[in-house]
């Protein structure tokens, strides 16, 4: 390695780089997105977003068309709740227990792509959007990098990465630690939240062995460990989940004994994963076969008295899911006009759920029929575990019948044997036509099958909570079902001038057993349920322009997501809500009509050793849903937030041989200190109110070596 951190151009190094570049191209060709819509984030794109590698992954993805933000770090793509699939180097990660925070960090990514629309048959299970992260490697990101980033609200974010290669080996590792007081969104509009400390650490390691010019073995492993204080909302007076408790004698005795501003609720999340892959190129046939494991757990610790007083239940909850499986993708260049792809995915998963609850017993009813509760709490233990299977097979043909026309058609067969048991054969077809240079039309249809999230479906023993302060409004609990969709998509993309692109896309999803998720109760653990019918449709527009040191982009999207008749997990809902929704369409709680984002950057002195990069981003949302006189009938007020960034680089600031590029950065998040709500605390499956981050100033220094 040369003193400036670049790889010495020896014959061996050149061969290593060329061979790995060839294998990278071959691997990318295994996951064709013909006919779908793909939005790409290059390394330059990631670095120009305020925060760069320090920015949360969801804030990067918000710059893509049709991506709406929600609380707990969640995103919604094209009106779906959480049907987002993450892949590392083309290998899908099984779902985990993450509710807020990030298991995968932006720092892991050399580049990434978001693919939406009518997906080809190789993409199954979670299909609202496929986020494929190309991880950093020793060849693409050689050398070391240490940074310290921080600022307001005790924000402290040190990180370290190092990569390189020796002979046939290629290695890369990165680790970071996050400490701040903005772990979960503030339930009040105040500048700082009460009781909101978080400590997190993350690690990603990547080791590759290139046996020859056609064979590569890689191992990727990651760890995420996060602890959160759940922020408090002062002035709360709600007593128990059961409204009749408000007027009881016990309520009067307990009222005032606990202050909602001083509760001590905590949550811990752990995720570990590993991927072992073999990639082989055999001329007309290439393949990648991978073994995948992922362990994910979530634990909630209540405030023993506070949760009992305010919610009627203090519940210590623990959930975990261990997934192991295999994924293989094969590409066969059958001829000049046909490229055949086929493969499979299969996972075995073990889900465990345990709760220890403290509740008040119901001792009778008063003259008005309201419940009367005793003052001696009861303990209720509940737990269950289940092992299940998830599997999918696919085959597709990319056919070029005539010049400038591509037809991609195929079939999937998916099945799930977990809490629910079902399967489906899904045809898919996409047509892509390029009538002139730089212009592309596409149209497609995909039949989708989405299993319910195994880790979010539990077997709660409702009868254990009967005649207590935690008694559900209804004891009906139908098992969550797999969602089945008809998905239509069409669009057009055009290169207007060199460096200037624009695209338009429209979509429609008709769903049976539409899956939605919500938070019910104090533990921030989402639970899944079904609407018998669902409809989602919308359109997107995106444009970008890059020339030399200047780049700018912008996009907007319109979406409408509605559902009718909640048919599963009914115990989470009020009977009046169920009765209203049974025969009427309502907006889904995450339905946001208008979503937009924009950004730009300019690099001054970019041909020198001390470039200065200035960048800005904007996010606009017309507001998610809240209750009015009907469920989800209202809209949260619209908002727009702006972020700024300045990064000054120096090629050899310290004049020390082994220290090279130095970067100083200043980021301002929510420049105009906009007060805006993400959630109002009302709506189907909505927990506490959630407000966006107030103005935050962060600085950092990064040193290459």
Automatic annotation (TrEMBL):
One of the GO biological process terms: siderophore transmembrane transport
Cell location: Cell outer membrane
InterPro entries found in the cross-reference section: Beta-barrel_TonB, Beta-barrel_TonB_sf, TonB-dep_rcpt-like
All residue ranges annotated as the TonB-dependent receptor-like beta-barrel domain in the record: 227-671
SUPFAM superfamilies: Porins
Keywords of this entry: Cell outer membrane, Membrane, Receptor, Signal, TonB box, Transmembrane, Transmembrane beta strand, Transport
Molecular functions (GO terms): siderophore uptake transmembrane transporter activity
Highest taxon in the source lineage: Bacteria
GO cellular component terms given for this protein: cell outer membrane
Membrane topology according to the record: Multi-pass membrane protein
Entry-linked Pfam families: TonB_dep_Rec_b-barrel
Family according to the record: Belongs to the TonB-dependent receptor family.
PANTHER family with a match to the protein in the record: HEMOGLOBIN AND HEMOGLOBIN-HAPTOGLOBIN-BINDING PROTEIN 1-RELATED, TONB-DEPENDENT OUTER MEMBRANE RECEPTOR
Protein's name in the database: TonB-dependent receptor
Protein's organism: Gluconacetobacter takamatsuzukensis
């Amino acid at each position: 390695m040369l003193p400036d951190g670049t790889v010495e151009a020896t014959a061996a190094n050149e061969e290593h780089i060329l061979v790995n570049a060839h294998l990278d191209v071959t691997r990318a060709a295994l996951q064709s997105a013909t006919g779908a819509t793909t939005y790409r984030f290059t390394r330059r794109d990631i670095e120009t977003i305020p925060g760069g590698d320090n920015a949360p992954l969801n804030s990067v993805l918000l710059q893509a068309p049709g991506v709406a933000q929600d609380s707990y770090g969640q995103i919604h793509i094209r009106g779906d709740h959480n049907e987002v699939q993450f892949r590392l180097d083309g290998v899908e990660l099984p779902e985990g227990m993450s509710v807020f925070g990030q298991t995968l960090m932006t720092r892991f990514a050399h580049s990434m792509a978001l693919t939406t629309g009518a997906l080809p048959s190789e993409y199954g299970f979670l299909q609202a959007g496929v986020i494929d992260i190309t991880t950093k490697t020793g060849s693409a990101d050689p050398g070391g990098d240490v940074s310290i980033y921080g600022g307001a609200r005790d924000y402290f974010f040190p990180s370290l990465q190092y990569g390189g290669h020796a002979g046939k080996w290629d290695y890369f590792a990165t680790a970071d630690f996050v400490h701040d007081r903005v772990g979960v969104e503030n339930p009040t509009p105040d500048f700082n939240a009460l009781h909101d400390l978080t400590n997190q650490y993350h690690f990603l390691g990547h080791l590759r062995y290139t046996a020859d010019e056609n064979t590569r073995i890689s191992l990727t492993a990651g760890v995420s460990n996060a602890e959160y204080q759940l922020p408090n909302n002062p002035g709360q007076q709600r007593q128990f989940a059961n409204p009749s408790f408000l007027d009881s004698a016990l309520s009067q005795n307990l009222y005032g004994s606990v202050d909602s501003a001083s509760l001590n609720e905590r949550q811990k999340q752990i995720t570990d994963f590993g991927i072992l892959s073999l990639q082989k190129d055999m001329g007309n046939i290439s393949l990648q076969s991978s073994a995948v494991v992922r362990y994910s757990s979530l634990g909630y610790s209540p405030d023993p008295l506070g949760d009992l007083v305010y919610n009627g239940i203090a519940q210590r909850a623990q959930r975990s899911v261990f997934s192991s499986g295999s994924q293989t993708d094969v590409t066969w260049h059958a001829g000049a006009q046909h490229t055949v792809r086929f493969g499979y995915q299969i996972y075995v998963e073990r889900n465990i759920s345990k709760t220890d609850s403290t509740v008040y017993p119901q001792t009778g009813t008063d003259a008005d029929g309201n419940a009367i509760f005793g003052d001696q709490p009861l303990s209720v233990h509940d737990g269950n575990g289940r092992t299940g299977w998830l599997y999918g097979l696919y085959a597709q043909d990319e056919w070029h019948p005539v010049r400038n026309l591509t037809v991609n058609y195929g079939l999937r067969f998916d099945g799930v044997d977990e809490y629910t048991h079902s399967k489906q054969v899904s045809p898919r077809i996409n047509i892509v036509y390029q009538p002139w240079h730089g212009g592309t039309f596409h149209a497609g249809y995909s039949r989708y099958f989405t299993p319910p999230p195994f880790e979010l479906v539990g077997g709660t023993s409702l009868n254990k909570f009967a005649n207590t302060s935690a008694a559900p409004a209804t004891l009906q609990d139908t098992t969550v079902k797999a969602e089945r969709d008809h998905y239509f998509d069409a669009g057009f993309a055009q290169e207007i001038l060199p460096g200037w692109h624009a695209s338009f896309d429209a979509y429609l999803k008709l769903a049976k057993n539409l899956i939605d998720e919500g938070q019910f109760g104090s533990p921030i653990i989402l639970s899944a349920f079904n609407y018998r019918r669902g409809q989602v449709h919308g359109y997107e527009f995106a444009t970008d322009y890059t020339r030399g040191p200047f780049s700018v982009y912008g996009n907007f999207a319109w979406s409408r997501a509605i559902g009718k008749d909640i048919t599963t997990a009914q115990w989470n809902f009020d009977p009046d809500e169920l009765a209203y929704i049974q025969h009427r369409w309502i907006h889904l709680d995450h339905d946001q009509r208008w979503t937009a984002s924009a950004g730009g950057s300019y690099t001054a002195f970019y041909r020198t050793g001390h470039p200065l990069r200035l960048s800005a981003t904007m996010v606009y949302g017309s507001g998610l849903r809240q209750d009015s006189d009907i469920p989800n009938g209202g809209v949260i007020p619209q908002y727009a937030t702006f972020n700024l960034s300045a990064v000054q680089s120096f090629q050899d600031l310290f004049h020390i041989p082994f220290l090279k590029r130095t970067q100083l950065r200043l980021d301002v998040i929510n420049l105009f200190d906009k007060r805006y709500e993400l959630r109002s605390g009302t709506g189907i499956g909505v927990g506490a109110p959630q407000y966006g981050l107030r103005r935050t100033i962060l600085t950092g220094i990064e040193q290459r070596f």
